[in-house]
Amino acid sequence: MGFKDVYNLVGGFKQWRSDDLPVLPFENNHSPWVHTIFEKETETAQYIVTDIETKEAYIIDPVLDYDPFSATVRPTMAKQILEFIEKHNLNVTKIIDTHVHADHLTAAHYLKDKLPSKPEFWMGSNVTKVQEVFSKKYNFTNAQLSTTGQQFDKLITENDNWTLGQNIQCTVLNTPGHTPACMSYRIGDAAFVGDTLFMPDIGTARCDFPGGSAEQLYNSVHKMYKSWPNDIRIYVGHDYPPANSGRSYEVMTTLAAHKESNKMINEDIPLEKYTELRNNRDSQLKAPRFIHPSLQVKLWYLYCTYM
C-alpha cells in the first residue's frame, strides 16, 4: 500500500529489541499539555502550555480585544484564559510573546496583573531593534520610550535553556525575518513558532515590515529544520485557511510536514525561489488593521483602562 519502514509487532517489545529494530532513546524530556484558545477576529492562536505533573504553565501570545472605532480594549479573550487557568488550578510562571505583534494587542500586561502568581513577561532580546525603529516613527523621546527592553521582565537569547515543571526541557531559537525580535520556543516535544511558519498550505509570514528580511526568514526556518526532530509538534501563531480549501482553522502539524509540503519553504525550495514567492506575496498585502495601536501598546508597555 505504499507504506515504508513497516515492522511486525508479534512478540511485543521484547521481540522488537531482540530483532534489533529501531528504538528512540528516552531523552528525559516529557510532553506538555497544550491547550489552544483561537481568537477569530485576528485569527490568532493563544496557547496555555502545561506540565501535568506540577501544573506549572506558560501562556504564549495572548490577545487583548481591540475596537478600532472607539479605540477601546476588552479582555474577553484574556478572561477565557483566566477561566481555564482557574478551572485546572494552574500555576502560571511565564507569559511569552513570540515577537512584537502588529496584528493584535498583547494581553500580557492584563494577565500579569490579574494572576496571583505574577508571571514574568518574556520577549526576545532583539526587541530593542524594533523599539529603536518605531520610537523614531512615533516621535517618542528617550524619556517616553526606553529602547533597552527594560519594559519586559526577561529578554531571551538563543543560548537560553530552562525547564517547565521537573522534566520538560525548554530551548529557544532566534528566528528573525518576519521581525528582528522573533523567537521560536521548543517546550518538550512542542514548538511555538509565532509567525515564522504558518500551516503548510499557507507558507510563512510576511517579511516587509521594518527590519524584516525574506533571506533571514529562510535561514531561520532552515535552522529549525536542522535543529529539531521531524516529529516535533509545530504550533503556529495564526491560521488563514485558503479560499475554497474546505478546511477549518488549524494551528498544529509536524516539522516533517513543513519540510515535505510547505508551499513556500519546503526542503526542496532554494533561497532564490522563496525570496521571489515571499516578495511577490508581500507586494500584494496591506498593512495590518491594528498595526499602530498594537505596536505602541507592546513597545511602550502602555497600561490601558479595561472595560
From TrEMBL:
Reply yes or no: does the keyword Phosphoprotein apply: no
Q: Biological process (GO) annotations?
A: glutathione metabolic process; hydrogen sulfide metabolic process
Q: Please give the SMART domains that the UniProt record associates with this protein.
A: Lactamase_B (SM00849)
- Molecular-function annotations in GO: metal ion binding; sulfur dioxygenase activity
Q: Which Pfam families is this protein grouped with?
A: Lactamase_B
Q: Does Cell division appear among the keywords?
A: no
Q: Which UniProt keywords apply?
A: Metal-binding
Q: Which residue intervals define the domain Rhodanese in the entry? A: 1-25
CDD domains found in the cross-reference section? POD-like_MBL-fold
Protein name, UniProt field: Beta-lactamase-like protein
Organism, per UniProt?
A: Phascolomyces articulosus
